[in-house]
Amino acid sequence: MIDISKIMEVLPHRYPFLLIDRILEVDGNRVRAIKNVTINEAFFGGHFPQRPVMPGVLIVEAMAQAGGFLLFHSIEEREGKLIYFTGIDNCRFRRPVVPGDQLIFEVEVTTRRRTFAKTHGRALVDGDVVCEADLMSALGGV
Predict the structure, then answer these.
(1) CB-CB contact of 21 with 37 (8 Å)
(2) Which of 33, 50, 137, 138 fits a disulfide with 66 by CB distance 3.0 to 4.6 angstroms?
(3) Of residues 13, 47, 73, 120, which has the active-site annotation?
(4) Domain 4-141 sits in which CATH superfamily?
């Protein structure tokens, strides 16, 4: 397991936009990560006050961050580099994510080149897929 301090060594994201809490495993071209969804998240104040639902774009962003960790942690010279989220294909949402849910992200690299990668990600709650998508990323300078 990789805790939040190690995640912050690899990813440039910080509060309130760091959306993964722990890496459960990294195995070659695959990663499993956790996001604990709590009512204290700032976005729940407006999405939606009477029925809090995690915005789908933030689920996809968290999935992309898990994939970014997978891609970026294997790069030894990260200084001055970022992984940019460049595209989404085949994204589907299966059910709402609400406070108290624990999102498990499973992301696998499907294509990798020197400065470009494609991944397939799934977000699960209690073993059920709540979102899946194909994500594209590019490595670039700051």
Answers:
(1) no
(2) 33
(3) 47
(4) Hotdog Thioesterase (3.10.129.10)
Measured CA to CA, the distance from residue 120 to residue 141 in angstroms comes to 24
DSSP of 53-105? ---HHHHHHHHHHHHHHHHHHT-S--TTEEEEEEEEEEEEE-S---TT-EEEE
Catalytic, 47? Answer: yes
pTM over 0.85: yes
In angstroms, the Cα distances linking 11 to 35, 64, 128 are 15, 11, 27
What letter does residue 126 receive in the DSSP assignment? Answer: T
User: What gap in Å lies between CA 33 and CA 69, rounded to an integer?
Assistant: 10
Q: By percentage, how much of the chain surpasses pLDDT 70? A: 100
H or E segment at 27? strand 22-27
- Whether pLDDT at 142 is above 80: no
Q: Where are the domains of the chain?
A: 4-141
